[in-house]
Specification:
Distance between the termini: 44 Å
Number of strands: 10
Helix content: 40-55%
Structural class: alpha+beta
Order of helices and strands: HHHEEHHEHHHEEHEEHEEEHHHHHHHHH
Number of helices: 19
Strand order of the largest sheet: 2-1-4-5
Length: about 450
């Protein structure tokens, strides 16, 4: 399939084209397989990169492999004989001690799923609620937070935080296919989607059948999740509730505790009886907005703040990245730390104060100085490096021979002179302050 490496003439986005909105169409499958759609799908998959699936074929190796195998694959798709491969199960630890299970599809299946997503998005997205923000074109988590902030300012100070237990693992396949079938008449496409739901997972070379759930990790999963939860959005709108949803993260805002308790009970029944999902009664809460947590943020005194748990997680990650026993070069350590800091401030910076960023920057620089000190190890190396970086010999000898530990040493005068702010910046350390200024004062 040589055209996978080619760009479309105008680089246009299939998901935005009006001629790809044939609701109830019976030829969506053919549209999915068009060269133009597959080219754009490949461009998306290639840009997202990602690890190989169970076949071990990487994104870089895929073009050569698919060129030789595409005629057979396309024939199997057209005849209905194509069978998606099981996804590779990956477990990621969550801050609360639990785990999030991801399913990594083969690159080929990522390509086909992306192609399906591109023909379904123009059909389903226009019917989604304005209060649904997750994994949709031109929508973001920041917009969801802004909407909740607006509701708080209007006097709705009680949050009904609904937690769905293992949502992506418990999606009912038959119900999801029914919801899909209301807008999609192409049985070939519906069969292919069901085959992805039933593809199963591989865990340590053990195949496990899939009887429920939508594996997180594939391009199609976010759209299917929104389709599954759209009836909830419609029910909330019908009842006149004020809410915001980002994927399976849901918050409903009301004006009193009593109203919140009533809403939680009725919505829990709807989710469990109508959508066959499980509400986690332990984690779901009806609380003041100042005690709630939505997408990592909380809302106090009319303002948006970074939640304490989010800040704690941030510091834990910085400690891990600046661990003095990590055993990697300082250049790599600075690169990975700066990469994390840049992404973090781009997301949470909207809720951070300028002084708070300065304080965190100061703490981060001390962590970096500590890591340098630990890596220099021997007193002679420490003295030589201090002198090389402009510290006078008497002070360098005094600092290099100290019996203080790395954390205490990181605040001494010699290290402050050698590893000053300008030096760390020149070495590539990103400052939260710079990200904050760009976020709050860019034109």
């Amino acid at each position: 399939m040589s055209d996978l490496n080619k760009r479309t003439p105008k680089g246009e986005d299939v998901t935005q084209r009006s001629d790809l909105k044939p609701a109830f169409s019976k030829d969506l499958f053919d549209l999915m397989l068009t060269r133009e759609n597959m080219d754009i799908a490949w461009k998306r998959v290639r840009s997202n990169k990602g690890a190989p699936g169970i076949d071990g074929i990487s994104v870089d190796d895929f073009p050569l492999w698919v060129k030789a195998n595409w005629p057979t694959i396309k024939s199997e798709l057209l005849t209905g004989n194509y069978l998606p491969s099981p996804v590779r199960r990956v477990s990621i630890k969550k801050p609360d001690g639990g785990e999030r299970l991801l399913g990594i599809p083969n690159v080929l299946d990522r390509l086909i799923q992306q192609a399906i997503t591109q023909v379904l998005t123009p059909i389903f997205d226009p019917m989604f609620s304005a209060s649904s923000f997750g994994f949709r074109p031109d929508r973001s988590a920041h917009q969801a937070v802004k909407q909740v902030h607006g509701m708080v300012k209007s006097g709705r100070l009680i949050a009904v935080d609904v937690d769905l237990s293992k949502f992506f693992d418990l999606v009912n396949h038959d119900l999801l296919m029914t919801l899909l079938g209301r807008k999609v008449r192409d049985k070939r496409l519906l069969r292919l989607i069901r085959s992805y739901l039933k593809a199963g997972v591989m865990v340590d070379k053990l195949f496990i059948k899939s009887h429920a759930g939508v594996p997180q990790g594939g391009p199609l999963s976010p759209l299917l999740a929104n389709i599954m939860l759209d009836p909830l959005d419609k029910e909330l709108e019908k009842r006149g509730h004020h809410f915001a949803r980002y994927a399976d993260d849901i918050t409903i805002l009301v004006k009193s505790q009593r109203a919140g308790e009533r809403v939680f009970l009725s919505i829990s029944k709807f989710l469990e009886n109508k959508l066959k999902l499980v509400v986690n009664k332990t984690k779901s809460r009806v609380v003041k907005t100042s005690e709630s947590k939505f997408l990592g943020f909380t809302f106090k005194k009319g303002r948006v703040y970074c939640h304490d748990k989010s800040l704690k997680k941030f510091k834990e990650e910085v400690r891990r990245l600046t661990n003095r026993n990590w055993g990697v070069s300082m250049n790599y350590q600075l690169f990975k730390t700066s990469q994390y800091l840049r992404g973090w401030v781009n997301y949470f910076g909207i809720a951070m104060g300028y002084q708070q960023c300065l304080d965190l920057d100061q703490w981060i620089r001390r962590r970096i100085r500590m890591a340098y000190w630990r890596q220099w190890r021997k007193p002679r190396t420490k003295v030589n490096n201090l002198r090389r970086l402009g510290v006078k010999t008497p002070l360098a000898v005094k600092c290099g021979g100290t019996g203080k530990g790395p954390w205490r040493s990181s605040k001494t005068k010699g290290i402050q002179i050698a590893l000053n702010n300008a030096y760390l910046k020149a070495e590539g350390l990103y400052a939260l302050r710079d990200g904050w200024i760009k976020l709050h004062h860019s034109k």
